[in-house]
Task: inverse folding
């Protein structure tokens, strides 16, 4: 439930930016920092969650995250200005970073192997629902009440979660031993490691989130962020591999299955979140859908995943996880290829069916993929492994959104130029069309404006189709990459990756 709250809050604020900007006397561009600040803080703290959980104690850290997230949500709802809201979103993002990985680690250690698959399926149902229904819920709350309530709604939920966590959660003996040993030997904090994580992850998130807006390499700001990211990331890898008590246990990536599974997690997040951005945007800009109608198209897909999760949770104990994951990737790739056949006249029901088919395939990826990742994880390393795989998921999602946005923009420019070049004013067919449009619209100027609009829409649709081809190819590569993982028994011992 805590992970659901965090996932929901990540998605719910997107649709309220215009209202937030108007209420706090800011521009829409300035208001986007409400999202960026949360993502940057989340990206910085997420790699540290395994170390913090083991050092502080998982239960203490988990409850602390819920309390801090709840207080930050309350203060966000009461924020009197945009700078105050941005600062509080930084606190909220830092606190929220621990909710998903720690929730997964708790579930992994709370169930025997034969029951973990179903437990993680239930967890997957919760976290898939967040981004699916978040935008629609956020829009409804904002319309019916005000944007403040998208944050205030977390307060009663947080209070209930803290009460339940205090009463029900217990740290496993192995983790208590690790925490006790660290305290007895003296907690040695790797301050340089913390600084390098903040620099590398923070600058990387800024690059991915703001790169398109600042025109990538044409911006001195983005170039500076790239240099900081590359330098600090190289130092971070060296530091964590050589330090006696690393904050991020990168040595886990020495396990072939775990390393490849992390690549697959990142690779899956690219089309998953990329398409979550593309479809609503396409429907609103090209097909004339409202934000609510676009949400109605997207939401049924999440229901398919929710229904399929328990089924896959049972299958993963009986079928080779590589077969399930590869099949899921193939289905998603086929769904992407089907999207390349659409046009501007596509029916509402067809869009719903295509989205449901894509999410049907997704259900076969989550649990099996994480079963592959966690099959060979050493005892006592669950928190560290979960932190790494959640970091890769977040990075993959951020890369996916940036990649599809960049590709869409460039493809649109190319197709618009090509279509415009192929219009010959002396062509009799063109002249007849313009004459007919001028008669219908009343004047030649209106006809030219309508023709420009048609070119713009067609170029836009062709650009979306190009990006769907790109995502189909990427997902097909992931389907083949699965088979690089060595076969192991699929005990369903893995936490389910979120989003």
Result:
């Amino acid at each position: 439930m805590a992970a659901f709250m965090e996932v929901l809050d990540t998605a719910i604020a997107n649709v309220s930016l215009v209202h937030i900007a108007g209420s706090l006397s800011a521009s829409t561009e300035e208001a986007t920092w409400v999202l960026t600040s949360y993502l940057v803080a989340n990206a910085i703290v997420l790699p540290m969650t395994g170390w913090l959980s083991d050092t502080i104690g998982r239960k203490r850290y988990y409850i602390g995250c819920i309390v801090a997230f709840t207080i930050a949500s309350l203060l966000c709802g009461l924020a009197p200005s945009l700078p105050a809201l941005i600062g509080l979103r930084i606190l909220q993002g830092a606190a929220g970073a621990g909710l998903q990985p720690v929730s997964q680690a708790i579930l992994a250690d709370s169930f025997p192997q034969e029951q973990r698959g179903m437990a993680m399926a239930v967890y997957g149902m919760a976290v898939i629902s967040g981004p699916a229904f978040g935008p629609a819920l956020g829009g409804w709350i904002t319309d019916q009440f005000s944007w403040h309530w998208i944050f205030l709604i977390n307060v009663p939920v947080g209070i209930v979660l803290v009460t339940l966590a205090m009463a029900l959660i217990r740290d496993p003996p192995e983790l208590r031993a690790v925490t006790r040993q660290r305290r007895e030997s003296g907690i040695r904090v790797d301050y340089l490691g913390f600084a390098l994580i903040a620099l590398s992850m923070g600058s990387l998130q800024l690059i991915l989130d703001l790169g398109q807006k600042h025109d990538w390499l044409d911006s001195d700001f983005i170039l500076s962020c790239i240099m900081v990211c590359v330098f600090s990331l190289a130092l971070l890898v060296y530091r964590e591999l050589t330090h006696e008590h690393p904050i991020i246990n990168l040595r886990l990536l020495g396990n072939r299955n775990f390393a490849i599974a992390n690549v697959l997690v990142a690779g899956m997040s690219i089309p998953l979140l990329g398409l979550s951005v593309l479809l609503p945007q396409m429907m609103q800009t090209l097909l004339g859908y409202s934000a609510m109608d676009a949400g109605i198209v997207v939401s049924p897909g999440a229901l398919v995943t929710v229904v399929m999760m328990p089924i896959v949770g049972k299958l993963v104990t009986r079928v080779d996880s590589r077969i399930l994951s590869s099949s899921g990737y193939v289905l998603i790739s086929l769904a992407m290829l089907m999207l390349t056949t659409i046009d501007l006249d596509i029916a509402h029901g067809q869009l719903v069916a295509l989205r449901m088919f894509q999410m049907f395939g997704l259900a076969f990826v989550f649990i099996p993929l994480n079963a592959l990742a966690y099959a060979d994880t050493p005892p006592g390393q669950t928190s560290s492994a979960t932190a790494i795989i959640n970091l890769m998921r977040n990075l993959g999602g951020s890369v996916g959104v940036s990649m599809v946005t960049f590709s869409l923009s460039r493809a649109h420019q190319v197709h618009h130029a090509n279509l415009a070049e192929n219009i010959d004013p002396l062509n009799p067919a063109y002249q007849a069309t313009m004459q007919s449009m001028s008669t219908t619209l009343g004047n030649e100027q209106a006809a030219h404006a309508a023709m420009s609009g048609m070119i713009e829409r067609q170029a836009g649709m062709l650009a979306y189709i190009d990006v769907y081809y790109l995502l189909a190819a990427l997902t097909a590569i992931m389907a083949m990459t699965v088979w690089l993982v060595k076969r192991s028994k699929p005990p369903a011992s893995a936490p389910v990756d979120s989003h």
